Automatic annotation (TrEMBL):
PANTHER family: MAJOR FACILITATOR SUPERFAMILY (MFS) PROFILE DOMAIN-CONTAINING PROTEIN, MAJOR FACILITATOR SUPERFAMILY DOMAIN-CONTAINING PROTEIN
Protein name: Symporter
Record flagged with keyword Manganese: no
GO molecular function per UniProt: symporter activity
Membrane spanning residue stretches: 14-37, 83-103, 109-129, 150-171, 183-203, 240-264, 276-294, 306-324, 330-354, 383-402, 414-437
Any one Gene Ontology BP term: sodium ion transport
Amino acid sequence: MSLSANRLSMGTKLGYAVGNVGLQMLIAAMSFLLMIFYTDVALVPPAVAGAALLVGKVWDTINDPLFGWMTDRTRSRHGRHRVYLIYGAIPLGLAAAAVWMVPPGLSPVAAFLWIAITYTVFDTMMTLVQLPYQAMAANMTQDYDERTSLTAFASMGALLGFFAGSVLMPVLVRAAPDARTGYALAGAVFGLVAGMAVAVVAWRVREPATSAPAAAEAHAAPLWASVRATLGTTLHNRPFLLLMSAATLVRLGLTLVQASLAYFVIYQLQGDKSDLPRFMGILLGVVGLSLFVWKVVVDRWEKNRAYILGLVLCAAGLLALYWVKPGDRHLMTAILVVVGIGMGAHWIVPFAMVPDTIDHGHMQAGERQTGMYYGLYGLMDKLARTLATVLVAGMLDVTGYVPNVAQSADALQGITLMTGVLPGLCLVLAIPLLLAYPITRSRHAEIRGHTGMR
């Protein structure tokens, strides 16, 4: 398929969406359940688990931009992005399974090393696969609205993966003889499915012929000079910086919710074991239904305005969690419906906006540097996820959280703040940045004209 082919076939969109099923399944499982697995099943102190996870994110400050630069300059008969999916599918699955296999009886030091090593290896493989996967989408079509359509399909795949990671994993764990065995088996199954999903994209989706590596002169430049030049060009793209900053705040807020929700349902709402998957099913079901609505909204509005509307709804619901009392299951359900409607905008809109900012950068620099943009976007996304996880771990430690018992008033207050109030404020802070975002439908048409895209 050439770069000028703006319309994508249904098979191409579906094939691309399958990859998100596997990738988002891993992300959801780790966002919602990894910390509570470490603290309540593997019995690792919260501060030790949080510090170990931080090690992987320190490495992430290097690997996301570096791998983005690498993909922009990769030469392969399989394409500069698709080749990473071909050779990364199996290692990603193995690394994902290892994260959930913490040996019993480890000392705090040994537990720190085990978590730091397994999670860092997983994070590296995830970057090597997810970054090229996302970068492929920016080159598959240049049409402003067709990108929204492709993103909608990818978001549906992501939703299915998120459902599996957050709802089916607890079900698989409960079916095992004990929780430790259940997490190990579920992790192995999820790793296998994720590897197969990535392999489907590598088999079904081909990169456009013009998705070529950078010019030969760039290959001849010293490594650091080349990376610095590409990074500098990316950081001078104002629309991209505005979008990335807003999306980072949103990711921070939503990851706080993901990391705290299990604690909120178990200890604040005082729910039973079936409540968490049921509430997650409601939330993700609403998100899925809302995607069709958001696609229509984006087709009629500008993308940034639609994103803002979603954030307002989501923030209102999250702030309302502060008033949920033990046993308020009906109120909890109503709040999750509102949050899910708003959250649907985040699942589709920003991912349709990133390629537009890349087109703007192409117009500025005269060179299309897809990988570096997704490298920086992925870096900030993962740093936000890690910061949220560390904040939740720190909150549990400071407020005196004790696993598997009734919590103190201080611990419950901390859980409530991390699940609703602080995430809601993060979403509100992203709104001014999106109001300043300049790329509209008409402006994008002008950019395409300047860069000669059709």
